[in-house]
Design brief:
eight-stranded mixed sheet; disordered N terminus
Length: 366
């Protein structure tokens, strides 16, 4: 990973609209491919999404209309939206690079590190790390209110360094939606543009066995993955764009039946955090089929084009411990993997954006 910086000068009105850069100036000469982004959570696995976005943002004729994110996806979403609001895709790439570089810096000073044997056996698993083994056992007995009584979250520092939330709320370069779960009501909460704050991002990424519930406007929130990872409906009702790109970090399929306790816990986590997305995709497929068959008026219902980028085979080999591994080499591995998968998507399906789905919803989600 290379160190990056965010432009420190305020954007012009043209920059806020993404028009005042050589990349976007070139893009004005050809039809824009308008796209919404739906970003899954997954802890350190969010570096895969970083790699995907870095490659997508090299496409000069791409236009991002809206972004919806959950957990690590919410962090990527907020940083991306801020970068675009600062100038253009290049600013977004720099902002994302800075966010993940600072995350790796903080992690390098912590106790949670992969052992040499961990590094030999896997790109990112930390199943043999003494501190991981201690924390994994302790978190089953003690709550974060006992283990972390002051509610310290190192990612707050990183987010406040990288993103100016007051500036982000004052601009609307893209529509931004962050998903969290209301602890008391069990309902989904989608923080929209005027509600954006560092607390909203941390609420979306609040794993209940790791952090205390985050209080926002008198309500308490846990990780949004319980109710939407990520939800698609904010992009349907909050934008006029019919193409949605889902960047998946949680594998739907697995090659083997989990047998050890860590493997079972990891698979339970994947199933739980994928369930809401799969239900929503069933509904989207149902409405799309009715529209195509003429049973619903197309002027009252949207027909969506669904696109996905994932690395299921590689991600299925990564266990729960890897989601807490912010070691620089592992983040670089995930970044490169995401970059490669995005390049593969662009080469094979890039011309389908704005025209048709590149993902068969029935095969992938049903």
């Amino acid at each position: 990973m290379q160190r990056c910086r965010i432009p420190d000068h305020p954007p012009s009105p043209d920059q806020e609209r993404g028009l005042d850069s050589p990349v976007n100036a070139e893009a004005q000469n050809k039809p824009r491919r308008r796209l919404n982004l739906a970003l899954q959570g997954g802890g350190a696995h969010g570096a895969f999404t970083w790699g995907v976005l870095d490659r997508l943002f090299k496409e000069s004729d791409l236009a991002i209309v809206g972004i919806c994110g959950t957990s690590a996806g919410a962090m990527n979403a907020a940083v991306t939206a801020f970068g675009i609001a600062q100038g253009d895709f290049e600013s977004a790439r720099q902002a994302l690079g800075l966010f993940w570089e600072r995350t790796a810096d903080i992690s390098s000073r912590g106790l949670l590190q992969p052992t040499p044997l961990d590094r030999m056996l896997s790109p990112g698993n930390m199943d043999l790390s003494p501190f991981w083994l201690w924390y994994d056992a302790a978190s089953r007995i003690l709550s974060p209110y006992q283990l972390n009584p002051f509610g310290w979250n190192p990612l707050r520092v990183v987010l406040e360094e990288v993103v100016d939330f007051e500036f982000l709320r004052s601009t609307r370069a893209v529509e931004l939606f962050l998903c969290a779960t209301n602890v008391k009501t069990g309902r989904i909460k989608v923080f929209s543009h005027e509600e954006l704050s560092v607390e909203a991002v941390l609420a979306s990424a609040c794993l209940p066995y790791l952090f205390q519930a985050v209080k926002v406007d008198g309500q308490y929130y846990w990780d949004g993955g319980f109710m939407g990872n990520p939800p698609i409906y904010p992009l349907i009702y909050g934008t006029d764009c019919d193409d949605v790109m889902i960047i998946q970090t949680n594998p739907i399929n697995t090659q083997n039946v989990p047998k050890t306790a860590p493997e079972i816990l990891n698979r339970m986590n994947e199933l739980s955090f994928n369930s809401s997305l799969m239900r929503e995709m069933r509904a989207i497929n149902f409405v799309t089929r009715l529209v195509d068959e003429g049973l619903l008026q197309s002027d009252g219902y949207r027909r969506l084009n669904i696109h996905t980028i994932d690395a299921e085979e590689e991600m299925s080999l990564l266990r729960l411990s890897s989601k807490f591994n912010a070691d620089r080499s592992f983040l670089s591995y995930l970044f490169d993997l995401g970059h490669e998968r995005a390049a593969r998507f662009i080469a094979k399906h890039g011309d389908k954006i704005g025209r048709e789905s590149s993902t068969d919803i029935v095969t992938k989600f049903l």
